[in-house]
Amino acid sequence: MKFIEILSPLWETVKGILPLTIIMVVFQVFILKKPIENVAEFTIGVILAILGLHLFLKGTTMSLIPLGDSVGRNLYLLDKKIFIVLIGFVIGYFGTLVEPALRTLALEVEEVSAGAISQRVLIHGVAAGFGLGMGIGLFKIINNISYIKIIVPLLAIVLILIFISPKMYVSIAMDSASATTGPVNIPINMALAIGIASVIEGVDPLLSGFGIVGLTSVGAMISVLVLGILSNL
Prior knowledge:
Elements: H1 2-31, H2 39-76, H3 81-97, H4 100-112, H5 119-142, H6 147-164, H7 167-179, H8 185-199, H9 205-209, H10 212-231
Helix pairs in contact: 1-2, 2-8, 3-5, 4-5, 4-7, 5-8, 5-10, 6-10, 7-10
């Protein structure tokens, strides 16, 4: 019985990866008429991807999510709003630095721009914006501010910056916003936000705790657009 309980989550991961893999193989072999170059290596890669994703999701559920929730609940007990916002910025900043999707994006940008946009500068710029969005999100929660009162001004800033920033940075900003919403940031930041919202009297965790990811993405966009403007000075 225990063996079945262990295999059940693994099977859920298999059902997530296998259909996509099969579709791509069908396109490659039967529609594009191109062979799989190294079948053995490909098969091993799929198995490793399944095991890796399964272990990561399991580890996240066991560690990052409970820790983020606990930190959020205990953080509010300090009763220092500025400190909470600063902690949110720091967690968002350092969490973004290790996002694999962002590192991949930064490498591609540096390569395509022939080194004009440094990988290091882009990563730290995006991390600063993400941290800013995280801090704003926690400020919104602890003061029980309506989401629309926060997001509308931020989106207005984004629209203004789009017309000022170089076109290349506008495209990069859009991709950076997506690249930050990866497997490291999402569990920690959402758990932290929901943890704080759940201990504040009169605050609905569903309404206040969620939406934090959107704010962090907007923050990342703003930082990249500002980076583009500074690069032209």
